[in-house]
Amino acid sequence: MITTDVDLAVGNHECWDTVWNPVRGCTPVSAGCENCTAARLAAHLSYTTAGYDSLVRWDGAGPAWTGMVKMESEKLCDPLLWRGDRRVLVCGMGDLFAPRVTDVFIGAVFMAMMCNERHTFYVATKYALQMEQWFGSHAGQSVMETAFESKREWPLPNICMGISAEDQVTLDDRAAHLITVPAASKFLLLEPLIGGVDLERVECPLMRGEPCALCCEENGATVCECIDGAYNVLQEGIDWVVVGCETGPRTRTRAMNSEWVREIRNQCEANRTPFFYKQSRDRRGVRISLPMLDGRQWLETPV
User: Fold this and answer.
1) Can you tell me the distance from the alpha carbon of 58 to that of 46, in angstroms, rounded to the nearest whole number?
2) How many CA atoms lie within 13 A of 134 on its CB side?
3) What are the Cα distances from residue 293, in Å, to 138, 220, 257, 260, 298?
4) Distance of alpha carbon 134 from alpha carbon 138, whole angstroms
5) pLDDT in tens, 128-174
6) pLDDT one-digit tens code per residue, 27-74
């Protein structure tokens, strides 16, 4: 059974046992943010729970994040109190790498995860560049040095880093940053999936004039090792792919094509990457948890 705090009850967490929110609040950055389930819940909680009033606002399209965040230091000790070993989604009501979250506080969250090795933490972010930059920051380096000094393995084996992406554009933009992150395991959260994606042909950042982890320097020039300017992200250390539809009011949510899901599943199978089909909608718009695809549920997870 999924356990949450009162303000963590953003339902539909089929992949995880617990949702942990040391950070609340976010900033919309792409099309997938338009009908954010967490923002809608935060708007509801703002009437009954202290601390949400400044995080969301109402506009013509419904509730939206204001960009303000709350860094909840008192929640850093919560994992110590949980019984059993848990799979934990980090920041279901926000984003750990949102612009106003300080590097020092992100470091404190990583320290808390480091001190709770029996739990496995899944950190998914839309801010892939900020995530990459944090690992190179003074705060990030300090956390890694602390791990080495305490004789802990780095990358920490109980932390899985990931990105969320809703279509090919956001996947192309974020995937290369995830590849460079020093994490023991990595995953893609393709939710809400509002467009088809090709995991085997992700655009090399060099095509946009940005350096890429897959490129190299030869004779003072950056040379792209990708094939025709694209690479297979599933061959770059991705250990898990999770797919889910958009949730929210039926009149506003965008449909997810089953062919998009099938193509992702096929590519995961071809590359031996675990595939988890989290949620979809039926023809009436009703959400289906752990739906069937081609006669079975797809609930694969990393070993």
Assistant:
1) 12
2) 25
3) 46, 49, 12, 12, 7
4) 8
5) 999 999 999 999 999 999 999 999 889 999 999 999 999 999 999 99
6) 999 999 998 989 989 888 887 777 787 899 887 778 889 999 999 999
Which two three-digit tokens encode residue 222?
């950056």
pTM metric for this prediction: 0.92
Strands 23-24 and 70-71, sheet pairing: antiparallel
> What average pLDDT does the segment 173-196 reach?
96
Closest CA to 223 of 234, 214, 233: 214
**Given this model, what pLDDT does residue 252 score?**
78
Amino acid at 125: T
Tokens at 101, concatenated: 């979250």
Element (H, E) at 187: strand 185-190
Indicate the angle between helix axes 128-136 and 138-149, nearest 10 degrees. 60
Model confidence band, residue 265 (pLDDT cutoffs 50, 70, 90): very high
User: What type of residue is 25?
Assistant: G
Give the angle subtended at the CA of 183 by the CAs of 151 and 224, to the nearest 5°.
135
- Reply yes or no: is the peptide bond before residue 192 cis, omega within 30 of 0: yes
Complete DSSP assignment for 231-262 = E-GGGTT--EEEEE---S-TTTPPP--HHHHH
Alpha helices in the chain (DSSP H): 37-45, 78-81, 103-114, 128-136, 138-149, 168-180, 258-270
